[in-house]
Amino acid sequence: MKAHVQEFPIGKMAIVLGVSRCGYYEFLNRKCCKRTLGNQELTTEIKAAHRQSRGLYGSPRIHAELKKRGVTCSRKRVANLMKQEKIQAKMRKKWKRTTQQGRKVVEIAPNHLDQQFIVEEPNKVWVSDITYVWTGEGWLYVSVVLDLFSRKVVGLGMGSTLETELVTKALKQALYRRSIIANGLMHHSDRGCQYTSREFRELTLRNGINLSMSDKGHCYDNAVAESFFHTLKTEEVHLKHYRTREEAKTSIFEYVEVFYNRERLHSTLGYRSPKEFEEMWRRQKIEQIMF
User: Fold this and answer.
1) DSSP 20
2) Nearest residue to 257 via CA among 282, 236, 271, 240
3) Which end of the chain is more exposed for a tag (fewer CB within 10 A), N or C?
């Protein structure tokens, strides 16, 4: 009745619906119960967290974000309210692997990583991979280096060709940004020709990096890097239409540096961002030294 009060008289609607006029006015003046008010306030918080996530979070990450803000609620309650308000994560498209092993292999490194994806410190194991992104000008090739400890993207290379420079650029950026002496650092990748090239191998040798490569036909050996590309494509690339390679570069760089590394909550990190996870680890190290 309230929704149609501008269209029909209250008295006529009351007769048609079989209710009394005084009952309708009593309903209007009735105060909301505490639970209803609480749900309204929580829904406002949920919508704010969803907007901040760029519309990418489902109920598990929304619940984790609310906990970080000091909002006390159950994950089930968040899920129910999101369902009522039709708040959901953006649709994700099916992802498929696009990189292939080179035919001319110089030398294959052993699989030292062997799917041991839990690392206790940063800069111990980096993983890398390549993917393709379609634009109106053709393919844009993207290479990343991730620190397996925090899942943080520490190196990012993008270009119009699949030359070895694509992966060396990403690795050089990672070495520069981390400012480390890489002795003992492990770099894991698939057997793509860029990673087995002489140029890439010489770069890793100069920096004391131990190479590790996935076994033939074992796609899960580099699952973390491939999972990152799945996230990148379903949360950013597949939601855009890039007219130029430069447009795609800007979009991917902004997603990685502004959102993924600094804000996006990772379930494997206890629903923390890579930046927050590394900062927490550093604080704990300092406390151990001091006390």
Assistant:
1) -
2) 236
3) C
What is the 8-class DSSP label of residue 126?
A: E
Write out pLDDT tens, residues 201-236: 999 999 999 999 999 878 789 999 999 999 999 999
Spatial neighbors of 60 by CB under 8 A, at least 6 apart, are 75, 267, 271
Convert the pLDDT of each residue in 90-121 to its tens digit.
Answer: 755 554 555 555 455 457 999 999 999 999 99
Element (H, E) at 59: helix 59-68
Rounded to whole angstroms, the Cα distance separating 238 from 267 reads 22
Distance between CA 233 and CA 6 in Å, rounded?
47
242: left (phi over 0), alpha (psi -120 to 50) or beta: beta
Alpha helices per DSSP H over 69-115? 75-84
Its pTM stands at 0.72
User: CB pairs under 8 A, 24+ apart, for 115-119?
Assistant: 115/220, 115/221, 115/223, 117/148, 117/223, 117/224, 119/148, 119/149
Per the listing, tokens 């390679």 go with 245
What number of other Cβ atoms are within 10 A of residue 181's Cβ? 11
**How is residue 210 written in tokens?**
């131990």
- Cβ neighbors of 97 (< 8 A, separation 6 or more) are 219, 226
Distance CA 177, CA 172 (A): 9
Q: How far is CA 158 from the centre of its chain?
A: 19
